[in-house]
Amino acid sequence: MVAIKKFPEEEYILKGTAACPGCPITIALRTALKALGKKTILIVPASCSAVVQSLVPKTSFGVPTLNIAFAASASAASGVAAALKMLGKEDVTPVVWAGDGGTYDIGIQALSGAFERGENFIYVCYNNQMYSNTGIQRSGATPYGAWTTTTWTGKKEIQKELGEIVMAHHIPYIATASIAYIDDLYDKMKKAKEINGPRYIEILAPCPPGWRFDMSKTVEIARLAVQTGAWVLYEAINGEVKLTSYSKMLLKRKERRPIEDYLKLQGRFRNLTEEDINKIKKNIDEKWKRYMEIYKEKEEKQ
User: Fold this and answer.
1) pTM
2) Burial of 61 (0-12, 13-18, 19+ CB in 10 A)
3) Which residues make Cβ contacts (< 8 Å) with residue 2, sequence separation at least 6?
4) What φ, ψ does residue 265 adopt, rounded to 5°?
5) Which of 266, 265, 272 is nearest to 153 (CA)?
6) Angle, in degrees to the nearest 10, between helices 24-36 and 218-227
7) DSSP string spanning 32-44?
8) Residue 120, CB-side half-sphere exposure with 13 Å CA sphere
9) Do the Cβ atoms of 27 and 19 come closer than 8 Å?
10) In what order do the strands lie in the sheet with 40-45?
11) Out of 125, 248, 271, 302, which residue is the most buried by the measure of CB atoms under 10 Å away?
12) Residues ≥6 apart with Cβ < 8 Å to 300
């Protein structure tokens, strides 16, 4: 794993972004672009990142960027990948940079189609678990019990596991990451860059205004998500799943922190009942049971 002090010095997120204070997107994209380098083309659907770029005619993204319709980012990336192939520019990496609304919901058809076709690009979903840019509405990534403007009594459904849905497409590389563990994120972006075919990386991106916490606590909340097991860091290379970074430690020798440590810092969970918390705990326990079974199978094979 590359130490943070050894990250490249080049910066591709420039001064003057339109991001909110404490925004996780700039942390994630700054890290990702350090791993990918300047020969990167971003494809950005309607999302917070379309605003973070700054106001026309200025931009704070230091790489070519194509802003595209909400549902069409994977389709546009397919076209960019085809054009690069025709031009013989194999050292340029097309990267979709989309939120969960444009991935889990509005963009999932184009994503699935591109992955089925085996298109050669990286798809990154920065998951803030709602439609933050358009007013904090519920998405398919919104967790059970969370307040949004369209679930003001708390969401009643369990969120999708899109990483697992993507695994059903049998693509070469799938990973999850967090802005609290940027060395892990950096390594996964570097690894994805060197692989051909469709690649998918999902980054947990806690949003201060949407999740209702102080802007100084973005990284702390992201870290607690991993330490409590609410967000799992893993990668799947050609279908072989393994946990990484802190999640790997949880699987082998550490106990998960109480989920209450994570929930109590977020105003979006302020109305949870004890029954709600127990349901969240049960869902997390079931998820970790699946990972324990995968780990056990690997141990038996070895």
Assistant:
1) 0.96
2) buried
3) 183, 186, 187, 190
4) -85, -5
5) 272
6) 80
7) HHHHH-SSEEEEE
8) 16
9) no
10) 65-68, 40-45, 93-99, 122-127, 199-204, 173-178, 234-237, 240-243
11) 125
12) none
State the Cα–Cα distance between residues 98 and 65, nearest whole angstrom.
Answer: 12
Decide if pLDDT at 299 tops 70.
Answer: no
CB of 127 within 8 A of CB of 100?
Answer: yes
Q: Are 179 and 218 in contact (CB under 8 A)?
A: yes
Q: Quote the number of domains for the chain.
A: 1
Q: C-alpha angle with apex 124: 5 to 55, nearest 5 degrees?
A: 85
CB-CB contact of 167 with 242 (8 Å): no
Give the ranges where the chain is alpha helix by DSSP (H).
Answer: 24-36, 48-52, 73-87, 108-117, 162-167, 182-193, 208-211, 218-227, 245-252, 259-263, 274-301
CA distance 202 to 179: 11
**What is the Cα–Cα distance from 162 to 143, expressed in whole angstroms?**
13
Name the helix (H) or strand (E) containing 122.
strand 122-127
- Sort strands 234-237 and 173-178 into parallel, antiparallel or unpaired: antiparallel
- CB of 132 closer than 8 Å to CB of 210: yes
Over residues 247-256, mean pLDDT:
88
**In this structure, are residues 141 and 158 in contact, taking their beta carbons and an 8 Å threshold?**
no
Q: Which of 161, 131, 167, 163 is nearest to 146 (CA)?
A: 131
* Residue 251 pLDDT class (50, 70, 90 cuts): confident
The string of pLDDT tens digits covering residues 186-209 is: 999 999 999 999 999 999 999 999
Distance CA 116, CA 130 (A): 26
Segments forming the whole domain that contains residue 246: 4-301
**CATH number of the domain that residue 201 is part of:** 3.40.50.970
